Amino acid sequence: MEYTVQKLGRLAGISTRTLRYYDEIDILKPAKINSSGYRIYGQAEVDRLQQILFYRELGISLESIKDIVTAPSFNGASALRDHREKLLDKRNQLDVLIANVDKTIALTEGRITMTDQEKFEGFKQTMIDDNEKKYGKEIREKYGDDMVNQSNAKLKNMTKEQHEEVTRLGNEVIATLAEAYKNGDPASPIAQKAADLHKQWLSFYWSEYSKEAHAGLAQMYVDDERFKAYYDDKQPGSAEFLRDAVRIYTGVKD
């Protein structure tokens, strides 16, 4: 079956402006332009649009989606299986949060009691699940299942006060790192303060601290593009600067 821009927009629940934009950025071209100058979309374009909208629902940028769906190795069936797994993960996270909300409603209505720790269980489990999806494979290969599982258990058992403190420390690490980067010296007192704050932050997650593991993690911030993008978000080069500061702080070279 063939569709004009308007018909495809109504079918997919998106605007014709969006479809025209997808055409402009070469992520979804029409199958043809008819004699009247209208864009015409066929089955292949419908299938690709479905894939694009799946990826958008998962929060992936259009630039990344374009790289995925236009790659010669792209496999639609495999992508759908991957979508399904991600959606199941997302549903599981939502189920945890919904259960937490239900308990909180029951608490406010006086039907149950709820500890402060229970109030934050859903959020902490979601954080753990997100970290596992993004970084779990690399972290487990580098540090082993036992250390990662212990770290996750430590996070789940955090009190409200501990969670607030680790969040404050995380923000202070970023702010201090940005200030230290300005002078360009990873051995400077403020850079070493950033490294020490980073150690304090890690201590909320790690069951035990070692200088070698700290230095290894800082190196991974540089080697893994996802970590690097986080630290380089405001100032490119920050991940490498933190790595160098941590090496000096720990005395571990390579």
Q: Order of SSEs, N→C?
A: EHHEEHHHHHHHHHHH
Helical element count? 13
What do we call the CATH topology of the largest domain? Answer: Globin-like
State the end-to-end distance.
60 Å
Task: Give the tally of structural domains.
Answer: 3
The order of strands across the largest sheet is 1-3-2
Shape: globular
CATH architecture descriptor text of the largest domain: Orthogonal Bundle
Note the beta-strand portion. under 5%
Report the top-level CATH class of the largest domain.
Answer: Mainly Alpha
Helix content: over 70%
Total beta-strand segments? 3
Low-confidence stretches: none
Secondary-structure map with pairings?
Elements: E1 3-4, H1 5-12, H2 16-24, E2 32-33, E3 39-41, H3 43-57, H4 62-69, H5 76-108, H6 116-119, H7 121-143, H8 145-156, H9 160-183, H10 189-203, H11 211-223, H12 225-231, H13 238-250
Antiparallel strand pairs: 1-3, 2-3
Please provide a brief summary of the model.
This protein is mainly alpha-helical and 254 residues long.
Task: Output the keywords.
mainly alpha; 254 residues; Globin-like; Multidrug-efflux Transporter Regulator, Chain: A, Domain 2; 3-stranded antiparallel β-sheet
Task: Please describe what this structure looks like.
This protein is an all-alpha fold and 254 residues long. It folds into 3 domains: 3-69, Multidrug-efflux Transporter Regulator, Chain: A, Domain 2; 76-127; 159-250, Globin-like (Orthogonal Bundle), CATH 1.10.490.50. The protein contains 13 helices and 3 strands, in the order βααββααααααααααα. Strands 1-3-2 form a 3-stranded antiparallel sheet. 16% of the residues are buried.
